[in-house]
Design a protein that fits this description.
alpha+beta; Conserved hypothetical protein from pyrococcus furiosus pfu- 392566-001, ParB domain; 5-stranded mixed sheet; 9 helices
Length: about 190
């Protein structure tokens, strides 16, 4: 893992929303939250991280449609990093039935990626999106950084589960994945 620079909770929330604005799975829920508060997607696509009001609105939007996200992102020291392949393999998924099953209850991205390569399908959910991400990585597509938080068991993905898995399926294993990694402030 190579540290690029310091990051911030506001940047972590922003990259989370930027990724989900492009996500087939989450973009509708995100758009509903934007509509609920009378906001346009410009608060995500044309952000001003120096604007405290905007930052507060983005956090409010995230917590509105991702009501399971209970962490106080401000309780973490955040850094923008580049993850090597071995770093990605060691990342853990959140404790969620789909990711648990895909990773043989290890919650390790590396195990899940191998299972996807072998054709394991969980809950009748197609693996095509993982391979789409892998192809995009191979084509040089730049994705928003994933968001990873340090836990007792290791580094756990808060946002970017599919992207991390797709990166491991890409043929160009030299590609590095950017992440905003948070360590608890003591």
């Amino acid at each position: 893992m190579k540290i690029i620079r310091a990051s911030s909770p506001d940047e972590a929330v922003l990259v989370w929303l930027q990724a989900e604005l492009k996500s087939r799975r989450f973009q509708n829920d995100l758009q509903k939250s934007l509509d609920k508060y009378g906001l346009s997607s410009q608060i995500i696509t044309n952000p001003d991280l120096s604007d405290k009001s905007e930052n507060g609105l983005r956090l409010k939007i995230l917590k509105d449609y991702r009501d399971w996200f209970e962490d106080n992102i401000y309780a973490f020291d955040l850094k923008l990093v580049e993850l090597e392949v071995d770093d990605i393999k060691a990342l853990r998924y959140i404790d969620y039935s789909y990711w648990n099953e895909l990773s043989d209850d290890t919650r390790l991205v590396g195990v899940a990626a191998k299972n996807v390569e072998r054709g394991k399908v969980v809950f009748d959910v197609s693996n095509a999106h993982f391979f789409d991400i892998a192809k995009a990585v191979e084509a040089g597509t730049q994705f928003a950084p994933i968001v990873v938080l340090e836990r007792e068991q290791g580094l756990e993905i808060a946002e970017g589960h599919a992207r991390a898995t797709g990166y491991l399926l890409a043929d160009s294993s030299s590609e590095q994945l950017q992440a905003i990694v948070g360590s608890p402030i003591s």
